[in-house]
Each structure stands twice: as C-alpha cells, then as structure tokens.
Write a structure and sequence with these properties.
Number of domains: 1
Helix content: 10-25%
Strand content: over 45%
Length: about 160
C-alpha cells in the first residue's frame, strides 16, 4: 500500500507539471505536505497536495494516508475544484464546486477526520472557507486556513 501511495504522489507531481507547465496562460501552482494529529487519540493522517490557482479558479489534487485508532491504514486520493474571491487585502473566500475521491483498497467511505472534513456541507457554503495570507515570497506562500477548524500552512511554489 505504501508503494501505491508513493506512486500516486509521483504521478500527481508529473501530471501537475505537464498540465500546468505547458499551458498557454499558466497560473500559479503550489505544493504542500502536512500531517494531521489528534491529541485526544492515537489518530494521525498525512496529506500531500498540489494546488493550482488561475483566474479566480482553483484545482486541488491530494493523496492522503490515514491511520485509524485501531492501526488500520487507509489510502485515498481526492480532486477538488472551485472558485476563490478576494474579500479584502490578503483575505480570500474559497467555494468548492466539485469533489471526487478514490478510496484505494476500501470498500466503504471511511469515517476519519480528513474524510469527514472533505464531505462536510460547510465546505460548499459561501464565505465559510476563509484563507488569510500572512506572507508571500517568490517561492512560498504562508497562510492561515480556517477550513477544518484552522491550520497554518506553508505552500511551496512550482
């Protein structure tokens, strides 16, 4: 299963490079790798994502590994699309319009924190998915995401 996860991460990076590296009017692509842990239990998860922004639209592809409290490893990939709107300087609202998932080796929808956040109805409500940019440089974007209860994320530009 780990080899499947590594293959998917490599494949998504190559696909991102091909699709967005050679387009006529390229936008901006970012990469992020982060862990999710629950201090109240022995749950943990890891996500590697690529996000492409262009003309007030975004596309996000992720490969996720979650380890449930009973030590079961779950792997899945997701693809999300949507739009973003500037609310004020460095504050944006993201609206998700599409979401597809592939649960690798799972026969049912797992009930884990990352999965539950992906399918939350709040993701599809306007002005509920706020992003505040704290720092911009040529290679990095540091932001606070209020999606899924709040996170500070560093995204690397490609």
């Amino acid at each position: 299963m780990l080899s499947i996860s590594l293959f998917l991460v490599a494949f998504l990076n190559i696909l991102l490079f091909i699709i967005y590296g050679f387009s006529d009017t390229p936008g901006v692509a970012y990469d992020i790798d982060y862990r999710v842990e629950d201090v109240a239990s022995d749950y943990c998860g890891r996500s590697k994502s690529q996000i492409y922004f262009d003309d007030n639209k975004f596309e996000m592809k992720s490969v996720v590994e979650e380890i449930t409290p009973n030590n079961e490893k779950l792997y899945f990939e997701t693809q999300k699309k949507g739009t973003y709107l500037s609310l004020s300087e460095n504050v944006y609202s993201m609206s998700f319009t599409e979401h597809t998932s592939n649960f690798i080796g799972n026969k049912r929808l797992p009930e884990t924190p990352i999965i539950n956040s992906f399918y939350s109805a709040e993701r599809y409500l306007p002005n509920r998915n706020l992003i505040e940019i704290k720092h911009r440089s040529e290679n990095y974007l540091i932001l606070i995401s209020f999606i899924n209860g709040g996170q500070i994320l560093a995204l690397e530009r490609h």
